[in-house]
Structure formats: structure tokens, C-alpha cells
Design goal:
alpha/beta, Rossmann fold, Arc Repressor Mutant, subunit A, 2 domains, 4-stranded antiparallel β-sheet, 13 strands, 23% strand
């Protein structure tokens, strides 16, 4: 995943960067709201980890600003320990999760993985690709006039790919976000499920990009 982590403590940023990079995530760091806005203008991350108290303002204000602009990036707020008010304001502003400081890095990684699995899919979103309609809210797939049976694990894969149509998701990313497992068994399961999805929906819907990964057709 591509992560943007915003906090004004360089030591914490360095520790989190090394921790996330060990899990093969790409990490961009910012220490102020101004730096965060600059990075967001360049690329919207898969997950935004945002401290509430920053030198040039409140992370809650940035969260509210992003939601007002329609940004669907999952946002995890880092709040002061025991500050219920911050958590309530953050959730009201559109944050998806929060974690009070001090926190265990393992818990932060787990929460980020969960947000990454959820992705930016909104309720009510549908994608139409050729004669296939994918209703991510109702977990309903149709091809032509016929409903296509899709299993829960197949929907997890489709929702991940559907969070960014046209984007190529590597095998490693899919295995990490869906299975949290890079073992040969998980890899074989991915091959089996991708084959089933392509047979059910057609090869034009989910594309295999040789040596790169898979993408949901974004055209």
C-alpha cells in the first residue's frame, strides 16, 4: 500500500516508516498540514495516518476538508490519550478510525491493514464494465441479464480492485491485504480465485498484467 503518515515528531515518523516499509508498504512522511496538503496534491494514498495536533493546525480540520472535497481515502487519526473530545470531533469530521497515543506499533499496523482492506469504496457504488455490473453495496454481480454468483472472498478481491479501477495491484499487495499471508498456499488460492472470477465475469473485466499483477478494467 501507499501510505501518508503525518506527525510532528521526527523520531516517531522514522520508527513508523521503517516498520511499515518492512511490510513492503511505500511510505511518505509529513510533519505539518502544509506538507500533508502538498503530498495529497501529488497523490492520494491508500491510507492516511494523521496526527490531530500539528504545528500549523488540527488534523481534524484537514480530515473535514478532505471529506468536503469528496476524498474517499481511509483516514486514521492519532489522538492524545484520554481526549474523548478529539475522537468525537474526528469521527464527526469523517475519520474512519482513531488510535490514542501512546500506542503499540503492531496495533497501528493492524488497523492500517484493516483500513486498506476496506478501501475507499462507498455505499451505493456500482461499476459497469462491458455487459457486467458490479454492485459493491449489495454484493450483486450481473452479466447481461443474469445474476452471477460471487463468493465472499471473490468479493473481497473485486472490492479491492474496484477501489481504483485501472490501477494494477501486485500479487504481493493482494495477498497482504486479503490474506495477510505471502505463503505458497495463499498464492495458489489467489490463482484459483482469479481464474474463477475471470470465468464468471469474462476476461475483459479483470485483466492480468504479466509480471505486474491484476487490474479491474477502468475504461
Amino acid at each position: 500500500m501507499h501510505l501518508l503518515v503525518v506527525d510532528d515528531h521526527p523520531e516517531l515518523l522514522d520508527m513508523l516508516s521503517r516498520s511499515f516499509e518492512r511490510e513492503a508498504h511505500r511510505v511518505v512522511l509529513a510533519q505539518t498540514l502544509a506538507e500533508a496538503r502538498r503530498e495529497l496534491s501529488r497523490r492520494i494514498p491508500d491510507v492516511l495516518v494523521l496526527d490531530v495536533e500539528l504545528p500549523d493546525g488540527s488534523g481534524v480540520d484537514l480530515c473535514r476538508e478532505l471529506r468536503r472535497e469528496g476524498a474517499r481515502v481511509p483516514i486514521l487519526l492519532l489522538t492524545a490519550h484520554g481526549e474523548v473530545r478529539q475522537r468525537v470531533e474526528g469521527l464527526d469530521a469523517g475519520a474512519d478510525d482513531f488510535l490514542p497515543k501512546p500506542f503499540a506499533v503492531a496495533e497501528l499496523r493492524a488497523r492500517v491493514r484493516a483500513l486498506g482492506r476496506r478501501g475507499p469504496i462507498e455505499r451505493g457504488v456500482r461499476l459497469t464494465i462491458s455487459d457486467v455490473v458490479l454492485d459493491f453495496d449489495g454484493c450483486l454481480a450481473t452479466r447481461g441479464s443474469s445474476e452471477v454468483p460471487i463468493t465472499a472472498r471473490e468479493w473481497e478481491i473485486l472490492k479491492l480492485l474496484g477501489s481504483a479501477p485501472g490501477r494494477v495491484f501486485s500479487r504481493a499487495t493482494i495477498l497482504d491485504l486479503i490474506w495477510d499471508d505471502q505463503s505458497p498456499g495463499a498464492s495458489a488460492s489467489l490463482d484459483t480465485l482469479m481464474g474463477r472470477i475471470r470465468r464468471k465475469l469474462g476476461t475483459r473485466v479483470v485483466r492480468t498484467i504479466r509480471s505486474e499483477g491484476y487490474a479491474l478494467d477502468g475504461r
